Structure formats: structure tokens, C-alpha cells
Amino acid sequence: MPMPNGFNYISAVPGSGSSIAADNPRRLVILGSTGSIGQSALGVIREHPERFRMLGLAGGRNIRLLAEQARQWRPGMLAVLDASLARELAELLPPDYSPEIVHGKEGYESLATLPEAELVISAQVGAAGLPATLAAARAGKVIALANKESLVLAGNMIREACRQSGAMILPVDSEHNAVFQSLRGEKSSSLKQIILTASGGPFRDLDAADLAGVTVRQALAHPNWSMGAKISVDSATLMNKGLEVIEACLLFGVELERVAVLIHPQSIVHSLVEFEDRSLLAHMGPADMRVPISYCLGFPDRLGLQSLAPLDLLQAATLSFSAPRSTLFPCLDLARQAFASGPSHLVVLNAANETAVDLFLKEKLSFMNIPALIRHCLDEHPGEPMDSLESILDLSARTQSRAQNWAVR
Ligand SMILES: NC(=O)c1ccc[n+]([C@@H]2O[C@H](COP(=O)([O-])OP(=O)(O)OC[C@H]3O[C@@H](n4cnc5c(N)ncnc54)[C@H](OP(=O)(O)O)[C@@H]3O)[C@@H](O)[C@H]2O)c1
After folding, report:
1. Pocket test for ligand 1, best of 124, 152, 270 (most atoms within 8 A of CB)
2. What b/e string do you get for 83-101 counting C-beta neighbours within 10 Å, with b at 16 or more?
3. 247, 232, 251, 259: which is closest to 370 by C-alpha?
4. Is 228 near ligand 1, meaning CB less than 6 Å away?
5. Does the Cβ of 201 fall within 6 Å of ligand 1?
6. In this structure, what DSSP letter does residue 231 have?
7. Which end of the chain is more exposed for a tag (fewer CB within 10 A), N or C?
8. 323-356: per-residue pLDDT in tens?
9. Residue 60: which of 106, 150, 154, 128 has the closest Cα?
């Protein structure tokens, strides 16, 4: 996969010198407002209501929560998964408020491309987030990107869209946000490597025998972070770190070999960058997504977060680091291999993983069979051109049905 040059997203920051003025609120759309990231973003905005104007909120199926958010923020447009949910949502809104309610892929795309919107938070989960993220990139928006799957599926397409439209991406993922902050003001030629940290998830100390019997509840009980179900399982398998390695290559224009991963159980150092002079810059902070979200919302300024307790380093006391155990957690290597193989392998990786995680959450696949299913799909895939959104969605759908068949064989 050809690499982008330098810190291409960072150096292209439109208006990076301008602050958010209270008399000129930033016009905002949140895709995935009912999810973990969406709700954290609303928590940050609640601390600075005068700095933002909410234009649109998009949920999936949770229309009760979306209605509650809509009543509070009163955006002019709402989006949900399908037409029947849209009708139900309309019933839940007060009589003095009648926003436009759109639905499905086209609905999400129209919300992401609202002409007045400046900043789009992309926080839908999985491949479902790709069409709206790509639409926002084509429309020249500033995108606060949580939906890492978009980049994994269509990194080159999104990068080209950003180049042509002047759109830019601010990374919400805590690791990439840490790298982004550490790289500001640096020359890309000085960067030696990026070191992503991983908590290791709830199973980091288990052996193969213990892993064979782990339950969904255990997988969802992340030791440090509170997150949605899919990313919690991805963290437990280390696929999340695999997706993040790919995300780092694409965001910061570095080769696979220059993105390392270290297990850091305390989740205090959110990532590091090493420069040519052997300096290491690390970003530390509380393990709370409001930190990177607020950085993206306020960029280039920092927004105060009064509701968040400061990190007490005396309490934390120890910072430890170790190498990932790739034999027991093969998803990290599978992601690296897929990235090296090419764009269609990344689509297969992501689709097989989404299917495997869904089956695991429904208790139809064991934890150890998640990487087995992904490996099977990758081994069978000969590679094919990925030159449009349609080709990505088509291969995704074909892989998901192949993965389902493998799981019920
Ligand atoms: N949570 C974290 O701490 C964290 C950290 C870094 C990156 N991320 C990334 O951020 C993204 C969101 O994660 P999350 O943890 O916030 O997930 P989540 O809690 O499961 O929320 C997902 C959001 O996407 C919506 N959604 C689900 N299926 C959809 C579909 N088919 N079409 C459109 N919208 C759909 C959900 O709507 P309903 O709930 O209304 O159905 C919800 O608003 C993921 O890509 C994840 O990897 C998350």
C-alpha cells in the first residue's frame, strides 16, 4: 500500500491558527451520538455550551436516548437506521420541535455533509461508519475521527478525498490523539518511530487454557476504559491494537515497521513518539475519552474539563511496559499481515472481525475462534481491486456471509 507523505493530515489543518471564539460557536454534527464516544462528546460540550452549535445528531436504534439528546440540544436534523425508527422517533419529540429526520446510509451522508457544518464527529461503530465519514471527507469537513474502521477500510480513498477537498482528520482514538499531540511542531523527517500502548485488555495475564473458556461478560469488563461492546472485545483480542497500527500508518504517513506496540497495563501513557535524537515524547493523562475528544473539539485550543479529576501520578506510582504475547493474541499480527497484503485484505480483515465479534457477543463463537475465523477468511482471499465505496461494501458483505458459513459449519 503506498504511503502518504509526512504528517499529511496534520500539516493540512485548515484555520489551525484560529481559536474557537465564544461569539462564533463551532457548528457541529455528531454521528453516533447515542454511543459511548457520542455521549462522552456531549459531556464535553455540556461544559462549554456557548462554544458549540449543534446542527445534527445521528443514532442507530436507540431512539429513546436520541430523543432525549434531541430535546436538550434541538438540532435541525436527526438521523436513525431506518424509516420505521424515524417514525417512532418523531412520536417521541415535543410538539414545539420538529427537526428533519432522515435515515439509513443516505440519511447519515446528508447529515455528514450539511453545508453549515464545520466539524463532524465520526463515532458510529464498524464499517457502518464508512459512508458518512467518506462523505464528510469529500465535503471538506474537519472530522474528529473515532471510527477507525473507516480508515482501515478506505484509508487511501479518505486520504485522497481530504487532499482534494481540504478536509482534515483530528484523531479521537486516545493513542493517535497522543501521537498527534506529540508530533505538533515537529518535522516528519525527525520521526523515528511511533510506539502505541495497549492496556492488554481483561485477559492480558491469562494462559491458553484459561482463554479457551472466557465469557462475553469477562470480555466486556475492560480493566481501565469504559467503551462500547465491539471495541471492548477488540481490545480483549488485541484486534483493536491491530486496527490502530494501520490507523497510525495512514494518519501519520509511516511504514508498518515504524509502528511498535507495547503492553502498558496502567493506561497512563497513551502513546509515545521516538525521534532521531533518541528523545521519546509520551502523552499521559487520565484514562477517559473526554480528554482526546475535548482536544479535537477545541483544536487548536484546549478546552477546560472541570468534571474530570486530574491524574495523580503519586497514586499511579508504577508505569510498566512489556511486549505483546502474539502467540496467544494473534489478531495484532493478522492486522499487520493484512495491511502488508493490500487494501482488499484489510476489508476482509475488518468484515471477518466484525462478524466474529458479533457471533462471540451472541455466544455462538468462542473467544479463541475469533482469530481462527479471521485467519480463515484472509487465507482464502486472493486479493481484488478496491476502487470505490461500492466495491468495499460489496466485498465486506461477501466476507461477512462467508464468515457466517464458516462459523456454523
Ligand atoms: N468507546 C471508546 O472508548 C472508543 C475509543 C476509541 C475509538 N472508538 C471507536 O469509536 C467508534 C464508536 O465506538 P463506541 O464505543 O462509542 O461504540 P458504541 O457505544 O457501540 O456506539 C456506536 C454508535 O454507532 C451507532 N450505530 C450502531 N450500529 C449502527 C449502524 N449500523 N449504522 C449507524 N449507526 C450505528 C450506535 O447507535 P445506537 O446505539 O443508537 O444503536 C451508537 O450511536 C468505534 O469505531 C470505536 O472503535 C471508541
Report:
1. 124
2. eebbeebeeebeeeeebeb
3. 232
4. yes
5. no
6. H
7. C
8. 999 999 999 999 999 999 999 999 999 999 999 9
9. 128
pLDDT tens figures, 155-213: 999 999 998 999 999 999 999 999 999 998 898 899 999 999 999 999 999 999 999 99
Cβ partners under 8 Å of residue 190, min gap 6: 275, 276, 277
Read off the C-alpha cell for 79. Answer: 438521523
Phi, psi of 101 (to 5 degrees): -115, 120
Q: Does an H or E element contain 131, and which?
A: helix 130-138
Counting ligand 1 atoms within 8 A of each CB, the residue from 37, 89, 101 with the most, and so the one to mutate, is 37
Query: What is the C-alpha separation between 39 and 289, in angstroms, rounded?
Result: 10
Q: Which domains does the chain have, with CATH numbers?
A: 8-172 (3.40.50.720), 174-286+311-326 (no CATH), 342-409 (1.10.1740.10)
Pick out the residues of the known binding site: 34-37, 60-62, 147-149, 173-175, 199, 222, 228, 235, 240-241, 244
